[in-house]
Amino acid sequence: MLVLGIETSTTHGGVALVSGAGLISEYTLNVEVTHSERVLPAIERMLLDAGVTLAALDGLAVSIGPGSFTGLRIGLSTAKGLAYATGLPVAAVPTLEAMAWVLPGARLPLCPVLDARKQEVYAAIFRHGPDGLVRLMEDAALAPEALAARIQTATLFLGDALETYGELFRRLLGDRFQLPPLAQRGARAACVAELGRQRLLRGERESIADLVPRYLRASEAELRRQGASPPRRGRASASPEGPGGGA
Predict the structure, then answer these.
(1) Helix 69-86 and helix 39-50: axis angle, to 10°?
(2) What is the pLDDT of residues 50-75, one digit of tens each?
(3) Domains in the chain, ordered, with CATH?
């Protein structure tokens, strides 16, 4: 099964091709360029370089969040457009799960953290077991101090929130705060494609009409429209839609 993966939840986005033989091609770019300007050209270039056509694909995989509101919408819109045009099945892959997959075989627990703005992070905790990833904490939007309070053992941190909160985590956690190599701290489309391929092989596919980003909380604009107050720290709230800024 040949699967195209799309990752646009952060500025560290890209596209990848994965088959049963492994990674065929991956295009990654970590710069402040809107994903709408680069996703489709990246897919076109990658397929051309790999000598693969859309007709040869067996499925699509897309990162569904949490992450940048704008980036997630662009990624899902791209996946939906390709699915409608080709009839290919789509697998939805949680962003933090795909990030943890960057470090297969890690002996320590893994904590991917994304900058959620508003002095919060999106985070989850995983460990690698014999049968794959084991989730130790559900995805949540919470203050970095609240996350640190949940870390009881040495844990590998990765994700763009380290740029803002890395020193805070180091101060709060001491030796419990561990870092992988720099090149393995970001989201990768190859991991989205691989996890999506596994889901498709198990028969798990999304209804295109029901495929929406997983934001965990509403944007400021949506809260203003609803006349609601922002969510309290440390609590995750689901939002089916909502505009916002980001990559």
Answers:
(1) 50
(2) 999 999 999 999 999 999 888 899 99
(3) 3-95+187-226 (3.30.420.40)
